[in-house]
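Board notes (copied after class):
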Amino acid sequence: MDVTELPFNSFIGLKMSDRSGFLLMLENRHEYRNHLNTVHASALFSLAEASSGHFLLGEFSELTDIVPVVRTVETKYRKPATGKIFSRAKFREAEKNEILNMLSQRGRALFKVEVSLFDEADVLVMQSVFEWFCSIDN
């Protein structure tokens, strides 16, 4: 599944990153601006959420029967964001093998994905931790 093709993500224009080492990106568009002429918090959040899902699907590409659902999110906006915004993601607190073992043994798992967003100057503008609940669809 390509998360950029989901209706909402497509509507707001999320794209695969054109920069090495990053997952997804928001281009520098006027539509993303807020009253301070910086990138709106909801646009940043949308990029982070999609990046979390994109990372998750990439890490578990061998599993075709998982159903992931976001359970909770913690977000910290660190700096005003301008220009193109890029995302990175990684597991937090559990390793991929631990999560695969939980899915195999219990048919479900709860784990966290940390997403960091950066501007074109590599300034960290936002960090989020997405807690995912995944189950095996039988």
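Comment from the instructor: The CA atoms of residues 93 and 108 lie 17 Å apart. The chain has a mean pLDDT of 94.
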